[in-house]
Amino acid sequence: DSLIDLVCQAHESAPVVVGGDFNALDYGEMRLFMEAAGLHDPFPTDKKTYHSLNPSHNLDHLLLSEELGARNPRVVNGEMLSDHLPVMADIYVR
User: Fold this and answer.
1) What is d(CA 42, CA 12) in angstroms, rounded to the nearest whole number?
2) What would the pLDDT profile of 48-58 be if each residue is shown by its tens digit?
3) Which residues is 91 bridged to in the sheet?
4) 32: Cβ–Cβ under 8 A, 6 or more apart, which residues?
5) Half-sphere exposure of 1 (CA within 13 A, CB side)
6) CA separation for the pair 24, 12 (Å, rounded)
7) How far apart are CA 80 and CA 40, in angstroms?
8) What pTM was estimated for this model as a whole?
9) 90 CB-contact burial (10 Å; exposed 0-12 / middle 13-18 / buried 19+)
10) HEC states along the chain?
11) What is the pLDDT of residues 2-41, one digit of tens each?
């Protein structure tokens, strides 16, 4: 609820991007959060970001307010920087 409040408050003056490890194993939980905060996820729900050695969970998200879009959303594979794989996208105003 606190994050929803922060996102809604920030969105009053500018588009919003929220990214991070949400630790939500159930994507339904993420959907409820996104609806309440007015955000969308440009990634397919089947992306896997955790654990970086053998990704099997979709824990990391890059969420955008509705006036933003994303080109080339991707999970970055390669050099291990963390136990999570980073997510990236080219973000633009629609």
Assistant:
1) 21
2) 999 999 999 99
3) 70
4) none
5) 0
6) 26
7) 28
8) 0.90
9) exposed
10) CHHHHHHHHHHCCCCCEEEEECCCCCHHHHHHHHHHHCEECCCCCCCCCECCCCCCECCEEEEEECCEEEEEEEECCCCCCCCECCEEEEEEEC
11) 999 999 999 999 999 999 999 888 888 899 999 999 999 9
